[in-house]
Amino acid sequence: MVVWTVANQKGGVGKTTTTIALAGVLAEQGHRVLLVDTDPHASLSYYFGIESEDLDLSVYELFTQVSSREQILQTLCPTQYPNIDILPATMGLATLDRSLGNKGGMGLVLKKAVQKVAESYDYVLMDCPPVLGVLMVNALAAADRIIIPVQTEFLALKGLDRMIKTLEIMQGEQDTSFKYTIVPTMFDKRTKASILAFKKLQEVYTNKIWPGVIPIDTNFRNASFEQKVPSDFAANSRGTLAYKSLLNYLVKQSMQYKEVER
Amino acid sequence: MSKSLTASKKIMKNYLSELLTEPEVDVESVQQSVVKQTTSRPLAHKENQSLENLLKTVNEPKEAKVAKEVPVTKDVAKEVTNGNSSDTGLLPTSSEESLTAAITLPQKGYRQGDFQAMFFEVAGLTIAVPLIELGGIHKVNKTSSLMGKPDWFKGVMLYRDEKINVVDTALWVMPEKCDQALKDSLNYQYIIMLNDSSWGLMAEHLVDTVVLSQDEVKWLDSSEKRPWLAGLVKEKMCALLDVSALIELLNKGSDINQK
Known about the structure:
The complex is a heterodimer.
Chain A: E1 2-6, H1 15-28, E2 33-37, H2 43-47, H3 59-64, H4 69-75, E3 77-78, E4 84-87, H5 96-100, H6 109-116, E5 123-127, H7 134-142, E6 145-151, H8 154-173, E7 180-185, H9 192-204, H10 218-225, H11 230-233, H12 238-261
Parallel strand pairs in A: 1-5, 1-6, 2-4, 2-5, 6-7
Antiparallel strand pairs in A: 3-4
Chain B: H1 3-20, H2 27-32, H3 34-40, H4 51-56, H5 74-82, E1 115-122, E2 125-130, E3 134-139, E4 143-144, E5 153-159, E6 162-167, H6 169-173, H7 180-185, E7 190-194, E8 199-203, E9 205-212, E10 217-219, E11 229-233, E12 238-241, H8 243-252
Parallel strand pairs in B: 2-12, 6-8
Antiparallel strand pairs in B: 1-2, 1-9, 3-7, 4-5, 5-6, 7-8, 10-11, 11-12
């Protein structure tokens, strides 16, 4: 099982879209995918038509009660895609930072939870809230690789800087170093700002950035309206093709690291 | 590296170290007692502050504002703009209410910098509560009513051996508007726990959590008329609860009119 966490402390950079698009392509390739929604806004859950506030169990319960493998499996919601399941979020998650504060070890709850269902999935994709707190720390700590979508505009670069600093500090607290990939999103080749921001990203984060870009594509919005993953809604759209290319890159990167670790 | 940056890094390091280090006590026992522990912690204690608040104290630059547009029910907006809200007692009649008294009051955790608030709806009315004073959210379950209690006291609900005093929010907030038709139409689904108390407000819908800046709220510190009203969220034109004052009123058995 491989765990990828999609994170950025800045909102609106394409975290949920990236999570869904990658999940769609992975499922299409026959992989079993588990999505974990750690954002109290529950956008990922709503995307798949899950009214999370109506559910009895969600990610929230993983933090507030002891969960066995069976209980975690009960918490999972199926989606319309047989290969994609989701651990849904609820708004109650917004209270976790207050109720858990900085209690020792609470940053490892999600890591332990997904390990319990490791046999059932090939890939786990975690969607993070745009706030650094107990939920994001959990998602980062569980990750084999962190995917950082960055909107190709200058304001987003500042947010990225902060995210990288967070990872560096966290790295000091963990035994292993974080592997992360920066993914330029919402790239609009018609605007100078997009091009300049992309060049700046390449210049500053040379080895950490995916060499491609995710272009702006109205198919993403239309796919969400239809509650379909982009690869199902518009298989040959430029957005889908970009995510397929990103996935190939990420898989290759993971394999390279495995080779090195051997 | 500047002093503030070093301080920020240190706080972050401590916070992450706490979260990512296995404690001697099993985490799972912490998970089991999360709800209980929140009730025993002192109000606005430093430990209760979220990382975001801690970072603000070291001059962390401001970031995201409203995460998602919060819909305001038309009726409430109309009432507010028409100035007809006084009959519900929700909005202030004067903006000058006891402003000076605020200086003498202890500063609340959310009165500095940006803070998060959760919006919920009751009978078409949107109400906000500062997240730092939100004790938790539970699904509505069976309540046992008690004799001799006010109408707004829905009863006691058991949640994991804990007794929650459940408030019928519509009856508390707008008793004069609560006719039988309104009561019948209410579809309470959640209990919004007030800070560390055993009081919980019934809510029909959870709307959203939003980051608010100080400027986005018209503050009404120490309003003697409406102590339960911390202020008014300007854009949404809805009440922001002063949770500790509200708890005090509920403990006294007082309704919104302090009767």
